[in-house]
Specification:
The chain is an alpha+beta fold and 267 residues long. Helices cover 24% and strands 33% of the residues. The protein is built from 5 helices and 17 strands. Strand 15 and strand 16 form a beta hairpin. Helix 1 runs antiparallel to helix 2. The N terminus is likely disordered.
Length: 267
């Protein structure tokens, strides 16, 4: 299962003696997921793969992986296995078992892409143990998402001290008075490649951007986005038990083509 709770594994590979080899499910055993990184590939094109690569390597080194050059070689070889036709959602992983590290690559077909999403606030304790690294908390985030689904939502919103921090599988952004806003940088959360790409576009075209401390209620009347590497920009069309939002999506309609224009061939 992917970090979005969808997408079957089409093929699973591990890194063995400097190359990727195809694994059978029976060869797997219990490991701790240390780092994971995924991105959408459509007909051989993807958004900011170089940034994903850097985030993956930096996170793996931070989690104790000893060989940066090997990580880079693994990432490069994994890219070569992604077909250049159709939509794919590959995932690269660093896991550990009894103090030893392993590298895995999951080649998965992409699920149906969405342009909107329903969210619900997570009201329990924050389950994140490593909020700035994608991987160690993926299981907890999927459980939050499953809890949200029982209430009719597709995504859970995590609060930090009552302030909007991030979604269970996405980063949150919103529009207020013509400005594109994000949670304050001092709130620890995954450094979203998609959100970073959007802010890069914003800087290039001179759009007004900023940070804002916001409770869910503060977002009443705003166009809110849940963005991630699979779906890109999704408009939050409803917040169960939360604020009434502007779900028209007029900003998203203008910004999706700008984001698509940043995609580049894998080769």
């Amino acid at each position: 299962m992917s970090e979005n709770g969808t997408s079957e594994i089409s093929a699973l590979f591990d890194w063995h003696e400097g190359s990727l080899r195809l694994l059978e499910d029976c060869e797997l055993f219990a490991t701790r997921l240390e780092v994971a990184d995924s991105f959408l590939v459509s007909d051989g094109r993807a958004l900011a793969v170089g940034v994903h690569r850097s985030r993956f390597i930096e996170s793996a080194i931070a989690r104790g992986y000893p060989d940066e050059r090997e990580l880079d070689a693994f990432f490069g070889d994994a890219l070569q296995l992604v077909p250049r036709e159709a939509d794919w959602f590959p995932r690269l992983e660093v896991s550990s078992h009894d103090g030893a590290y392993q590298l895995h690559f999951r080649l998965r077909s992409a699920p149906e892409l969405q342009q909107s999403v329903v969210v619900a606030t997570h009201h329990g304790p924050d389950p994140r143990t490593e909020p700035t690294i994608k991987g160690p908390d993926l299981g907890s985030m999927l459980r939050l998402r499953q809890e949200a689904q029982r209430s009719g939502a597709r995504e859970a919103v995590i609060l930090d001290g009552g302030l909007v921090s991030e979604g269970s599988t996405s980063s949150l952004m919103w529009w207020r008075d013509g400005r594109l806003l994000v949670p304050p940088s001092w709130l620890p959360r995954i450094p979203s490649v998609t959100a970073r790409s959007i802010m890069t576009v914003a800087a290039a075209i001179g759009a007004q951007v900023g940070e804002e401390e916001a409770t869910p209620e503060d977002l009443t009347g705003c166009e809110v986005w849940a963005v991630n590497a699979l779906h890109g920009i999704r408009v939050v069309r409803s917040w169960i038990g939360g604020p009434e939002l502007d779900a028209d999506g007029r900003h998203a309609a203008r910004w999706r083509p700008r984001l698509t224009a940043l995609t580049r061939p894998l080769d």
